[in-house]
Each structure stands twice: as structure tokens, then as C-alpha cells.
Amino acid sequence: MPRISSHTSRVATFAVTCIALLAALWGLAGGPVLAETATMDWAQALQATVPVLQHPRGQRWPLMLWRQGGHAPRSGAEIRLFLDRGLVPHIRLTPEQIPAARALMAAGAPVIALETRGGLWPYDLAGATADSLIPGDLEGWRLATDDLRQRLARFRQAGIVIDAFWLDLEGGPHAADPARLRADPRRQRGLPAAVLEHPRRLREHLRQLWIQLLSAHVAAPIREFYPDASVTNWVVTLSSRQRPVRDWLGRSHPPLGPTLFTATTPLAYGVDTAYLHRWPAGQEPTPAAVDRFFLHLLLEQVSANQWNLQRQAPHLQAIPWVARRVVEHPDHPTPAMGRPAFREALRHLWLRGVDAMQIFNPPEMVGDQTALDQVADAVAVLDELLAHRDFLDRGTPLTLDHPGPTEATPLWSGLELDGRCLIRIFLPPGVPAPADLPLPDGHRLSLPPLSPGGTTLVLDRRT
Questions:
Q1: How many CB atoms are located within 10 Å of the residue 20 CB?
Q2: Is the confidence at residue 355, as pLDDT, over 70?
Q3: pLDDT at residue 30 tops 50
Q4: Pairing label, strands 420-427, 453-460
Q5: 33 vs 403: CA distance, rounded Å
Q6: Is the bond leading into 122 cis (omega within 30 degrees of zero)?
Q7: Residue 423: beta bridge partners?
Q8: How far is 364 from 7, CA to CA, in rounded Å?
């Protein structure tokens, strides 16, 4: 069974061979870093193909891109080109990025740092290899924290206000192979004996340990230097036994509660890994069936995370990574969800109370056109819903349920504000329209006649 890979997995081998160059760049020989590849001029492409927003964004976060066309300092005009489309360039957390951060501040844009590490990071800082990694040995974490504090100090001394740290640090304990850990007593130091006896418990413990170490060694130092910043990391979520967040293989995440991160980051990806592992055997992958499968997948982690946020930590935000197409197994062709289905999923994510979005748009994985299309779709849906910005800013989600991956049933989401409800309902072809919808307090919201496809409604529950 293929391992779930990450954004950085495709470049990890190359990056490790370039460790000397990374050491010069970062000051310490850290884990692999995903460098920006200039496959196209993103500013030019956005200007040519993505319309500017027609509705004011207000104080909401702009959308952040994974690929943006490099990290050189941009002119004020180019930064405004991004902002006019509800987008913002990000910076890397290196002192060389201080001029780029200063340019963003001067243009009135938020400064968002995206840091990427994977592989054996931070254990490789202490000399660990795949054969010697001991998850309970925290020397590498200490070195990583020392390095992070030095870099944060450089930015603060330069007068840079970093508004958000939306990170992609994917190394840590879950980089260890559970089977090899169980077979090698030398590598079990610091791990509870009770979890070593059960593969599932060990996998869950490694994920819990990873999140707690990120909280202590990454989120904590960031909040020391930038106490008002938004801080999150790839797949930092809240999970519970009652409503688990599931990975792309369908496995439940262990219970995960609040940490020192200020936001959560579930994934809403049309990823081929999930299709290869979870597509029902014998079912024909028609376009409609594929769209149903991926609509479920894009809503799955976000909805479970939101359910747990409501009950455990409503003060935390949700800032998912979104992508229509993610290809991790290019040697195993798979179908993709269509663009209309992707736009539909994005509408429902906003109407389930997410606070911002990060767009995973690597051209090297899906091609220039698909990468650009994903951005255009995300901007178009944001602009569409900004017409109802009061709901986005202050509304309460009405449902966090959604159809299963093979269910041809209505999909709906909504936000309630002061007795008014912003509803989006999607009816697959041939599915009858419901007459009403259940509300959290037990009442039902009456609906007008609906046509197949997607419909957005503003209804007053008091009438």
C-alpha cells in the first residue's frame, strides 16, 4: 500500500543531496526545503486570466498560493495586482526575505510566512537517518527551535510585522516507520510500551507526539516574537472519537485537541491517493460518480474539524489547503473532479465556516493550465460569496453533514445570521428536491421549488 506522501515528498531526495546549499541558505543544515520553480510568470498569468474582485474583501485574509512565481521583492503595483484578485504573495522565513516582507508592508498587504520542511526534519539536524531515527530523541527539535528563534529575531529587529505563519512542516515523529520501530528496541527510547504493542496505537501516538512537538518547538517561539500572529501548520486539526478527522486512506486521526496554534489546517484535496485506496471496487468512474467521490473528500476533513472546533475550541480558526487535482502517483492514472464540482465544493467550504484558504497549485504536478484554473476558480467563488460578506464574517454554520462518497443525495451548507440563512444546495441530476432542511435547533427551513444543479438562497427563518 503506497505511503501517503506530502507536498514536499517529490523533492525530498533532491533536497537532501543539496544539504550543503541549504545549510548556507538557512544557517543550519535542516530538512528538505521545497524551492519555488518558475514554470510561468504568475503575475502575468493572473493579470491575463483572473478578473479582479467585484466585492470588497474587507478585513478577511486574502487567498494564499503555494506557487506564486518566486520570492523576489515585488513592486507595489505587482502586489496590488495580487490583492485586487483577493490573493497575496507569501514570504519564506529567511533573512534574505526581509526586503520582500518590507515591500508587502508598504503595499498594505498582510505578511504571511510559508515555511516548508519534510523528510526526517528536524531529527536530521542531530544527525539522524532513516535507519537511526528515534522519535523520542528531541535534540533535533531543540536545534530547530534555536534556529527558528534566530530567524524570528532578525525579522523583528528589521521592523517586520509578520501577520501569519501558515507553515508546511511535515517531518517529525510520523516520518518514522512504525513497523521498523516495533522491530528495533534501540529506537523505542521515550515511547510508551503500551503503544508499541499495537500498530494502530503506535501510528496514532506518533501523530499526537508530532502535533505536540510542533506546538512546543514551533508555535511557542513564534508566539513569543509575534503574539498576535495567526499560526498553523499542514494538517493541524482537531479530531475526536465521536467525529474523527480521516486521512486519505480513510483512517481516523487520533483525538487531537487545542495546542498553541491559533488556527487549524485541514486538507480539501482532490488527491489521487484517496481515489486509488477508497474508490469502490467494481464501480464505474463516470464523471458524475467521480464528482460525488471528490465532493465528499473535499468536505470530509473540513467538516469533521469544524465539528470538533465547535465543541472543543470555537476560538480557533480553520484555514484549509484546497486543490481540485493533486497527483502523487503519476504512474497510476486517475480521473479528476470537474471544475464545476470543485467550485461547488469551495462554496460549501466557505458556508461551513472556514476563515481563509490556501491554494495548492503546483504546475509541476498538474500542469500550468490546471494550476491556474484552480486559482481562478477559488477567486471566482470567493468573489461570489463576498456579496454576502456579513454571513462569512459573523454567521454560524447550519450543518456539518454531507453525503457519502457514493450517495446521490442533496448536498447543502449554510450560515445563519440574525435569523437569516444563507443556503447553498446542490441537487445531482435526477435527485428530487427536498421541501425543507433541518436546522440545528430542531426546526425546519422551508425551501422554494429548486432546479437541478446548485442554487444559493437567502431565507428568513422567522417567516
A1: 9
A2: yes
A3: no
A4: antiparallel
A5: 38
A6: yes
A7: 414, 457
A8: 11
Chain-centroid distance of CA 72 in Å reads 24
Which one-letter DSSP state was computed for residue 117?
Answer: E
User: Do 35 and 364 touch, CB atoms closer than 8 A?
Assistant: no
The residues pairing with 421 across neighbouring beta strands, listed in sequence order, are 416, 459
The closest alpha carbon to 90, from 117, 108, 71, 107, belongs to 71
Q: Using an 8 Å Cβ cutoff, are 133 and 180 in contact? A: no
Q: Three-state DSSP class for 150?
A: helix
The count of residues in the chain is 463
Helix (H) or strand (E) holding 103: helix 98-106
- 171, amino acid identity: G
Q: Which residues contact 220 (CB under 8 A, 6 or more apart)?
A: 260
Fill in the DSSP letter of residue 427. E
Q: How far apart are CA 383 and CA 367, in angstroms?
A: 25
Per-residue pLDDT for 174 more than 90?
A: no
Paired residues of 413 in beta bridges = 424
Helices and strands in the chain, H and E counts: 16, 17
Per-residue cell: 118:
519534510
Can you tell me the mean pLDDT for 144-173?
97
Average pLDDT of the chain is 91
pLDDT in tens, 406-448: 999 999 999 999 999 999 999 998 999 999 999 999 999 999 9
Q: Is the dihedral of CA 164, 168, 171, 173 positive or negative?
A: positive
**Is residue 412 classed as helix, strand or coil in its secondary structure?**
strand
List Cα–Cα distances, 134 to 128, 176, 221, 228, in angstroms: 8, 8, 24, 34
312/308 Cα distance (integer angstroms): 6
Cα–Cα nearest to 118, from 218, 234, 288, 241: 234
- Neighbouring C-alpha atoms within 13 Å toward the C-beta of 447: 22
C-alpha dist (Å) from residue 217 to 95, 122, 313: 20, 10, 21
252 grid coordinates: 481516523
Say if CB 202 and CB 196 are below 8 A apart. Answer: yes
The identity of residue 218, as a single letter, is V
Q: What residues contact 17, with CB distance under 8 A and at least 6 apart?
A: none
Residue 373's φ and ψ, nearest 5 degrees, are -60, -40
